[in-house]
Design goal:
The chain is an alpha/beta fold. The chain has 9 helices and 11 strands. A 6-stranded parallel sheet has the order 8-7-6-10-9-11. Strands 1-4-3-5-2 form a 5-stranded mixed sheet. It is elongated.
């Protein structure tokens, strides 16, 4: 049973520390990430229990926290939670987790993201990967941080399950023997293409698409046929359409 009387209030120093993790450079330096909101935090406590650094909660949420995390739980007022939260309307709790240690990408089906900038798109692609059973993402170093607060929110828990590697894409693709398929405006109809189970699917930047040096490494450009007047598809929408065809 969770004993409220034994839970300490979060000190001003720790409040400042949690707030400092809003900056990518600080998250990177400490290899940490921050999760906000009841559902996402509780899922993290289930999946990443051993990686919890600190849990911050208002009194009203304490009874929903499993008792095993009592020693790492601290209370804040609603006003204090607003001050350390990145959300315009904070939820009831914030958790800080240690990042998982990543090994090298494996030779299995992989989504590659080249310069994706929008956190919502990144989070949605993570969620799609989770849905379709994709085990890893490989990203260019200028792709949005997967531990950005908006990415985590829109990933709906996928951030706990999908390893995300940030690599020199040109070197990674050059050294990989896997067949490389790239989503392009000009390419073969995606439904008329055979995809091996260990394919690499490359998705490009929202406005510029796949950069030329990466395009040169694509073995099979594929396209989603257009029947209307729209200039292009949202990258997350295009990823969903392609995955629904590729993952059988």
């Amino acid at each position: 049973m969770f004993d409220k009387k034994r839970v300490e209030a979060l000190s001003k120093g720790k409040q400042k520390w949690v707030r400092s993790l809003q900056l990518k450079k600080n998250r990177d330096a400490e290899a940490l990430f921050v999760v906000e909101g009841e559902k996402s935090v509780l899922e993290g406590l289930s999946v990443f229990a051993s990686r919890l650094e600190i849990l911050v909660s208002i009194d009203a949420f304490l009874q929903q926290i499993p008792s095993q995390f009592q020693s790492k739980t601290f209370t804040v007022t609603t006003k204090e939670l607003e001050q350390i939260s990145e959300l315009k309307t904070p939820n009831k709790c914030i958790a800080v987790f240690r990042r998982p240690e990543l090994s090298l990408p494996t030779n299995e089906f992989t989504i590659v993201l080249d310069g994706i900038q929008d956190p919502g798109n990144m989070g949605t692609i993570l969620r799609l990967a989770d849905w379709f059973g994709v085990k890893q993402l490989v990203c260019s170093k200028d792709t949005v941080d997967c531990y950005n607060a908006k990415v985590i929110q829109s990933s709906m828990g996928a951030i706990y399950r999908i390893p995300v590697h940030y690599l020199d894409l040109a070197a990674y693709l050059t050294n990989s023997s896997q067949q490389k398929f790239g989503a392009m405006l000009n390419g073969k109809n995606y439904k008329q293409t055979a995809y091996p189970k260990d394919a690499i699917l490359i998705m490009g930047n929202e406005g510029k698409g796949v950069r030329p040096e990466i395009e040169a490494l694509i073995d099979f450009p594929v396209t989603i046929p257009r029947f209307g007047e729209a200039e292009s598809l949202n990258v997350a929408t295009a990823t969903a359409i392609l995955l629904a065809e590729i993952i059988q």
